[in-house]
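[Q] Does anyone have a clean structure-token version of this?
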Amino acid sequence: MSLAHSLPDGYSDLQKTMAQREKTAVVLLSGGLDSATTAAIARERGHALAALTVDYGQRHSRELEAAGRVASALGVRRHVFQTVDLRAFGGSALTDAIEVPKSRSADQMAQGIPVTYVPARNTILLALALGYAETLGSTDIFIGVNAVDYSGYPDCRPEFIRAFEQMANLATKAGVEGAKFTIHTPLIAMSKAQIIKTGLRLGVDFGLTHSCYDPTPEGLACGQCDSCLLRRKGFAEAGAEEKVSG
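[A] Here you go.
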């Protein structure tokens, strides 16, 4: 699958007007189950979907491929793939030669910030989404952050989202001229089981998604990283059969 930019370089005034009329929302789409559910929620709320998927130099391309599948299944109108290679900085097990933790208990996951944290990742992703939204004439940005069943990342917390939203309305032409951006986080207070139940209700095919931090050379989920364990726990608590891509 090509990860090339799927849109022309600029947008005409007519395109912006159409986006506003359609109530277009920009959705950060990683290819995981959280972002897929977030996109489905945005669609349920009446938004036309413009997705942004970022290749930030993560360990593998499986989730990028999954994002393309999810976008097609959800009827995304515009899908942009953008590359920002954070391997230049490293500092994370997802962007550097650092081992991904495996087989950790729930107590271990709850202590501290793990090495899978990517420095400033959500700040960078939201900044890109903000630029994309402003060019489209959209003021709605959806991101699938979660502050319940997650790995302790500081950029998944409600206070971070509120701070970024305030910044967005100070730092943009649209914000200065009175168009107020909203950062939507519909999953932020949900458990993984609640997220899965919501996605199933909205018709999300979780078999298209990919969550693993460290897949095998064949692209299969390792089953032991924090993300795999949280996903498995969520399906079990939701009373649903886990579907894994690959």
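[Q] Thanks! Anything notable?
[A] The chain has one domain: 13-238.
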